[in-house]
Amino acid sequence: MVRLPHPSTYKQKIDPAYNARKAAQIIAFFATKEGGRINILKAMKLVYLSDRKSIQESGFPMLEEPRCSMPHGPVNSTTYDFAKGVYTAEISDEEGWSEFLKEVKNYNIATARKFSVSDFDELSVAEVQYLEALWEDFGHMNQYQLKDWTHDKKNVPEWEDPCGGSASIPLSRILGYVGIEDSNEQEEMIDDYAQIDKLFASLN
């Protein structure tokens, strides 16, 4: 039997600027579009593309977390860890994840109950518009079609084949590929905002 580290060990790995509740709402938004249940691989591709869309349109990601290239395409790392059940139920409850999503079963992740867009209070009006646009473009694709689409360098040039492992995708690389001018300055600004979020998180 594989023994997992004590929950406090996992807790320390969660960046205080990461918003698990918001990440869960993004997935719940897409799962709701599919009747309350969505394939986890498809969900992870849509989360990454949501982040990418937000960076392209506003200069800022929707989620503050590491991103990496994996064999099935680019992934938001912390969100993927939550989705695949790395964190305990207590942590998922505390971080607000389980308020919106159930654990993965048969490679699908389901919403905790029926939701409407008004329930997703972590998402701004602009972010909901990004998600709606993404669903319009990619909702008809299954997980394998999305995987192939994100593997195409014409579509997601920042993804690199990790040869069976994983490789970090620096935020600066995404900023550059989506056409953000002065990407280094923009990355510093994003980091500054993340530090502010961490400060407020430490006061709660």
Automatic annotation (TrEMBL):
Lineage: Bacteria, Pseudomonadati, Pseudomonadota, Alphaproteobacteria, Hyphomicrobiales
UniProt superkingdom: Bacteria
Span of domain Antitoxin SocA-like Panacea: 44-154
Organism: Hohaiivirga grylli
Protein name: Panacea domain-containing protein
One Pfam family recorded for the sequence: SocA_Panacea
